[in-house]
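Reviewers of the previous submission asked for a worked example of the structure-prediction workflow described in the proposal, so we include one complete record here. The input consisted solely of the amino acid sequence. No template or homolog information was supplied to the procedure at any stage.
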Amino acid sequence: MMKRFFTNWFGDKKEVEADTTVRVLCLDGGGIRGLIPAVALDQLEKRVGKSCGEIFHLIAGTSTGGLIALGLTKPNPFSAADMADFYRSHGPDIFKRSMVHAARSLGGYLDDLYQTDSFEALLRDKLGNNWLSGNLPETLVTAYDIERRQPRYFSSWKARGDKMDFGTEEDACDFLLPDLARAITAAPSYFRPALIQDRCGATHPLIDGGVFANNPSIAALMEARILFPKAENILLVSLGTGTLERPIEYKTTLKYGKLDWVEPVMSIMASALDQAIDRQLSLDLGEEDYFRFQTHLLSFDNDTPGPSDDFDNVTPENIDRLERRAYEMLDWESDRMEALVERLKSNPRCDKDILI
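From that input alone, the workflow returned the following structure tokens.
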């Protein structure tokens, strides 16, 4: 704890301890499975009695997790309950395609699976004419630049001109939230790449950051250490969207060609990286400062089928199963959740200025 002095009503200075822990929330990618972390965050907000924007200093996300992050930190932010309702109500609007497009694309082999018109209209309606520079608490989302062939990290602080890379203008780091949300969720084969403009007018061809960081926790941890240099401790809360349990049978893969391997390879990369990052953070931060909430997608106890691990299964039945599994996860992790809630309530979030 950092020692600080405060003046009381009588003019006497009193030494008190100020909490210098930076709080970081990280949200995985996973398409419609983003309903799982949204439900978990809704329960966290209700139990702590504050919004995520009041609880955390930094909220990071990839793909659907990035969409949640933008919603929780935008001007006039959404609550976690709003974000959960977003998935329940608008899943079919996100993953929408006509019969004609389905036939032309041959199930995604000749074209992207989904058209983006309804999704883009939904993003404009929900995120408005807001720029990333206006987001608070701090926001970090990921994408991949397909022409420059490099990972991209979009942050609210650089959009405001803080902690800039040498030779970079702040307006070159600032983007309209609907455009940015479209880019960070442009999952290959599901949606076409996004071409968006920064505030300077330069264009950026981007796809979903899940191709390199489906779990953005390592990136968020590194950025937090740079952004909050006076922090003596980091509390990191990481929420998954369900592990990919569907086995890839060896005999089946013997017949695979390039097209057959596209979807399995993406799921393998995402799952393997998630597990590797979880182990690294467990060793780095320890169980007192690292809280990872993840669940499986297997059948329920009564042999009812579990949620689908498909990014785009927006049937009412699957939406219900995702929500049911989210509450089961909270029940399984009740001790860890209780410890986290107690930690958050007993030491309220400190002023960002103390950490900077």
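Confidence is low (pLDDT under 50) at residues 99-103. We consider this example representative of the routine output the project will generate in years two and three.
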